[in-house]
Amino acid sequence: MTNYPASPSNSYGQYGFGSTITAYHPIGNSKYNGLSFQLNKRYAKNFSYMTAFTWSHALDDSTATVFSTNLTPRRGQDFGNLRNDWASSALDRRLRFTFTPMYDVKVFDKRGWMMKNIVSNWNLSATYTYQSPAYATVQSGIDSNLNNDSAGDRAVVNPAGIATLSTGVTPINNSGATVAAGSASIVGYVAQNSNARYIQAGLGAFANAGRNTYPLHPIDNVDLQVLKRLSITERTRVEFGGQFSNVLNHPQWTGDLLNDVYPNQLNNTRSFLLTGNPAFGRFDQFYTSNSRTLTVIARFVF
């Protein structure tokens, strides 16, 4: 690793381009395979349910080229080898299972208006959802491949290391002595924690980690809706009730919102994905927990 290759020279500087030029090429490849099942019980005796299961695998080499997520790099690590970025997509959710039972409480359906509408005439429904986690890309936060790209490069993987640990590195010279970062005498790097799975790739080191290898938490969630109906005439009624998202208030740091495609917001940047950071892997310190929410609803049906 002696004598680093020089970073690309700015050959366009003479034309007025004083800083690095970043290009987003309209090139990308993806593949999706999926298998889905659905089982429904038709409404009978005031009860019905819907069950759905999907297995799928989405792969690509460029999920978020305009930096629409903090979980995966916005540019390829090697501009000359896009296939090196081929991996499970940031959109990949391998398993998804939902179960939605619905029950109408009509125990006094044949009684008078008071018993029918006050004591009875309730609708209860729930949805249980399990979804495989999103995967994120561990990064070194260093321009390891010396291509002068500020986006940073990936990490070095120690297959025998603990999956939740990362570490920085110490640069050494050919006699094994520690030297300063960036020194021309560097011949290698030593991991500061040999038990870590993800090791920082120093300047000039080859980052062999793939995209999207670090799992966040899965969605494991129960929603509940309670609805009360008050009949006014045969064709008109008033309905009011509540919708409870994550009714069990189970903390879920998923990277997504539980009931929306809009991403869960980071309180900071992708620092929990940087090797050597004390907060590595602690996405629960950066994402919201999708705590229980209540939506009150009321409507007039005619």
What does this structure look like?
With 302 residues, the chain is mainly beta. It has a domain at 31-144 and 208-301. Helices cover 2% and strands 37% of the residues. The chain contains one helix and 17 strands. It has one helix at residues 113-119; strands at residues 30-44, 47-60, 87-88, 95-105, 122-131, 135-136, 156-157, 162-167, 169-172, 188-191, 196-199, 214-215, 219-231, 237-245, 256-257, 260-263, 293-301. Strands 1, 2, 3, 4, 5, 13, 14 and 17 form an eight-stranded antiparallel sheet that branches. β13 (219-231) and β14 form a beta hairpin. It is elongated, with a radius of gyration of 27 Å. The relative contact order is 0.15.
Quickly give the structural class: mainly beta
Q: What gap, in angstroms, lies between the N and C termini?
A: 77 Å
**Approximate shape:** elongated
For the sheet with most strands, the description reads: 8 strands, antiparallel
Number of strands: 17
Mean pLDDT across the residues is 86
**Portion in strands:** 35-45%
What does the radius of gyration come to?
27 Å
**Low-pLDDT sequence parts:** none
In N-to-C order, the SSE pattern is: EEEEHEEEEEEEEEEEEE
Put simply, the count of helices is 1
The share of residues in helices is under 10%
